[in-house]
Amino acid sequence: MVRRITRGLLVLALMLSGLTAVNASPAMAASGTLCNTSNPNVHVCIHGKAGISRCTGWIYLATPASQSVHHWGLVMVIKGHAQQVADGVFTTVKNYPYPAASRPCDSLPNEDYTAKSIVYVYTSSGVLHYNISSPTASFVN
What we know:
Layout: H1 2-16, E1 32-36, E2 42-48, E3 54-61, E4 71-78, E5 81-89, E6 98-104, E7 112-122, E8 128-133, E9 137-140
Antiparallel strand pairs: 1-2, 2-3, 3-6, 4-5, 4-7, 7-8, 7-9
Signal peptide: 1-29
Keywords: Signal
Protein name: Secreted protein
């Protein structure tokens, strides 16, 4: 079961790797920690800002896990390239934060850089239940 989910996440990451980065305008420039808290159960966050060499993504389980929400996978999209960074099983014992995953996010001087996290939540039978994206952190190193 876990192998099937992991394989599905890898395929998904490969499909997402075709994403292209969008040039950030000054209006959408952001730095520091950004979270999407619109889902009442699972929040997803990204940390990235000018002058750092690594971006960090993590998920926060806002309510205890239920039987219907079981497996999760975290994908980070850094400068348009998707990378699966973590996966696991929600437990009722541990609510937050689920692992922070860090990836290099250096950029060339004076070049726009973007990063975001996407969490994929699966049912206990391995069916994709939903996915949530963090806001996009845009910065220039």
